[in-house]
Every structure is written in structure tokens, then in C-alpha cells.
Write a structure and sequence with these properties.
With about 400 residues, the chain is mainly alpha-helical. Helices cover about 80% and strands about 0% of the residues. It has 17 helices and no strands. Helix 1 crosses helix 11. The longest helix is centred in the N-terminal third of the chain and has 31 residues. It starts with a helix and ends in a 10-residue tail after the last helix.
Length: about 400
């Protein structure tokens, strides 16, 4: 692992810490401030919509200004959103809080490209992605516990301190970014003729990889976002909830230390199929009971399944375009993936409160079946190899 991948992994770990802190408290803040159950997860949804709207512009901005300036801009927007979140909670302004999470989502939208920047900085793409994602293991412990600690430190201002902590996390990430030497596309390479985006995204490899990314992230986000609400409904407190989220995020990121090697040995599609099966297991566990151990074990398995699917999909999609096509190709992939994540965030609270926790898990099964079928089709038919993309 070179210095740049290590620094990017640190930045990713800090951003993920902030994300998990938000996951731990955002739905609870929405429940506290919103006027109806259908609006409970609106702050989570606005965060995801901010991320979604940023996916295309972030890639295009970085194509013009470079990675460092683009990532720095995203961090500054995230800091402004965190400070606005602090002020809105002090004054109990629900819609201003939603605007704050929207700005934070924009900052996160820029940060989603860390994994592609790591690919560009390494000659072993799968391992670079894994190292970036492995940094989330730190976030798994720090994020939920930070939410509990700051809330206990000054409980009378009710979650607001969490956003002061969030702004501090983003400032540290901004500093570390300045130490990274990014691998930019050369002027000569940038002037090469590019294929149309339609040709790129209709390649079987790109299409299947993007679809797997969409399914893995949206199903994981749907169940993860609904879990705090389901646990709260069954009488669990914040500390118990934080413990479940902590183990879920460990499941999401701890396997990353060896996922890259597993992809190199068994292939991306085999790992995707394994991830699909694990996600099925998660829904089965959720259907058998609602104790803390049911929630904890289910979300742990869900996290591992997401890890296998999402890292494998990223490795697969990164080989479907040439270096000088990366801006629009990465923008398209991120837009597809996070459009579904935004929708899953928007409907998580509504679905959990209307159809119920068990029906929500049952409804996830057909989506996972489609992902499994797409993966098996790709593995069986083995379409022609994509461009030899070595970033």
C-alpha cells in the first residue's frame, strides 16, 4: 500500500465515521421533529438526494480542476452542512435540518469517488478498493459511540453536539487531503477520442456491475435505515441501537482487509453471488425475531453481504472504460447507484411504519433474486472482455 492509498483510506474512514454518526441519529431526529411518520426519514432522504445530485457534477468538476480541489470543495460543503445541522437542532427547525443533511450529502457525494482515486493510485485495483473500504472498520466503532458520547456529554441540547463533532471530522479529512498526490489524467490522454456514454453503459460488464451496485447499496440502506425505527418501536434505547449499528458497520468494512484477495482468487462474480446469499440470510434472521441479538446478527450479516457485492461491483465497473473516459463513466455509475439509495432512504420510514418490519424484509427478497440472476447470467455467458483499463 503506497502513501496516497493510505491517506485516502484515512480520509474515507473519517467520512464514513461521519456517515455512521448520521445513520445512528438522523432517523431519531426526524422522529423527534417531524409532524408525521411518513416524514421521519426525510433528513436521511435529503442527505441521499444531495449525494445523488452531486454524483455527476463531482466527477465533471474533478475532470476540470483535478481530484484535490474537487475533494476539498466537497469537504468544505460538508463542514457548512454540519454547522447548519448544529444550529437547526438547537432551534428545533426540522426543514432547516433537512437542508443541512442535504449539504452534508453533497459533501459525501464528492467523497464517494475516493475509491476510484485509490484505484488510480495503485497497480492492484481490487486491493486498493478493499483498503479504502477497510478504513470503515474504524468508523464502525467511532461513529456510533461518538453519537452516544456527545449526546450524553450535553444531553439537554439533544443530538446537536453530534454535528459539532461531525464538522471536526470533516476538518481533519480536509487537512489530510492536502497531503495526497493524485494521479491525474494527462492532457494527451484527455484529448483522445471517447466513446459515447450510451456505448459505455450498455456494455454487459458495466450494466451488470452498476446494477449490482444499485441493488447491494439500496437494499442494505433500506434495512439499515429502518432498523433504528424498528428497534425504537420495540423499546430499545440509543445505546442498544448504537451497538447494533456498530456491529453492522464492522460487517460492512472489516472484511475489506481480505475481500480484495478473495476477488483476485475467485473472481468478482463469485463474490457477488456470495454477497447475495448473505443478504438473503439477513432477511431470514430478521423474520425469526425482534430481540437485540436478532437485529445485531442480521445487520452484521447484511454488512458482510454488502461488502462482497459492492467492492466486487466497483472492481468490475472500473475495468469497463478507458482512463480518459473515467469522468463520465464514474459519474454514470454513481448516479445509478445513489439514485436507488436515495429512494430507499426516502421510503424506509414510510414502509416500516405502514407495512411493518417483517414485510419490509420479505419485500427485499425479489430484488436480491434479480441481482443473483443477473450475476449468474454474466458468469455463464462471459461477454467479451472490456477495455484493458489499468488506471
Amino acid at each position: 500500500m503506497n502513501k496516497n492509498v493510505f491517506l485516502l483510506a484515512c480520509c474515507q474512514g473519517l467520512m464514513t465515521t461521519g456517515n455512521i454518526l448520521l445513520v445512528t441519529i438522523c432517523a431519531l431526529v426526524g422522529q423527534m421533529l417531524s409532524s408525521s411518520a411518513s416524514m421521519t426519514t426525510l433528513p436521511v432522504a435529503t442527505q441521499m438526494f444531495g449525494l445523488l445530485l452531486t454524483t455527476v457534477p463531482a466527477s465533471l468538476i474533478m475532470a476540470k480542476t483535478g481530484r484535490k480541489l474537487g475533494f476539498s470543495l466537497g469537504n468544505l460543503i460538508g463542514i457548512s452542512g454540519a454547522m447548519m445541522g448544529f444550529w437547526s437542532l438547537l432551534n428545533s427547525h426540522f426543514y432547516l435540518f433537512c437542508l443541512a443533511t442535504f449539504l452534508i450529502g453533497i459533501g459525501i457525494g464528492f467523497a464517494t469517488l475516493y475509491r476510484f482515486a485509490a484505484i488510480e493510485a495503485s497497480d492492484k485495483p481490487a486491493r486498493a478498493i478493499s483498503m479504502i473500504m477497510a478504513s470503515g472498520a474504524i468508523a464502525a466503532i467511532l461513529g456510533p459511540n461518538l453519537a452516544v458520547w456527545v449526546n450524553n456529554y450535553l444531553p439537554e441540547i439533544n443530538y446537536a453536539n453530534s454535528f459539532l463533532a461531525l464538522s471536526g471530522i470533516y476538518v481533519i479529512a480536509l487537512f489530510l487531503l492536502q497531503l495526497v498526490s493524485f494521479e491525474e489524467v494527462s492532457t494527451q490522454s484527455a484529448q483522445q477520442k471517447q466513446r459515447s456514454i450510451k456505448i459505455i453503459i450498455t456494455q454487459p460488464q458495466f450494466a451488470v456491475a452498476a446494477f449490482i451496485g444499485m441493488v447491494s447499496y439500496s437494499v442494505m440502506n433500506l434495512l439499515m435505515t429502518a432498523t433504528p425505527l424498528a428497534m425504537h418501536r420495540h423499546g430499545f434505547d440509543l445505546a442498544e441501537l448504537a451497538m447494533v449499528i456498530e456491529w453492522h458497520v464492522l460487517g460492512m468494512f472489516l472484511p475489506s482487509f481480505f475481500t480484495g484477495k478473495l476477488i483476485e482468487r475467485y473472481g468478482s462474480i463469485t463474490m457477488i453471488i456470495s454477497g447475495c446469499i448473505l443478504m438473503f440470510v439477513c432477511t431470514l434472521i430478521n423474520l425469526t425475531g425482534v430481540s437485540q441479538w436478532h437485529f445485531l446478527l442480521a445487520l452484521l450479516v447484511l454488512g458482510v453481504g454488502w461488502n462482497f457485492m459492492f467492492i466486487s461491483a466497483t472492481a468490475l465497473v472500473s475495468q469497463a472504460y478507458f482512463p480518459h473516459e473515467r469522468a463520465k463513466s464514474q459519474a454514470a455509475n454513481e448516479f445509478f447507484v445513489f439514485s436507488m439509495v436515495a429512494l430507499s432512504s426516502l421510503f424506509a420510514g414510510l414502509l416500516e411504519s405502514t407495512i411493518g418490519w417483517q414485510a419490509l424484509n420479505i419485500g427485499s427478497a425479489p430484488i436480491l433474486i434479480l441481482a443473483l440472476m443477473a450475476s449468474m447470467w454474466f458468469k455463464r455467458h462471459s461477454p467479451l472482455a472490456p477495455p484493458a483499463n489499468r488506471l
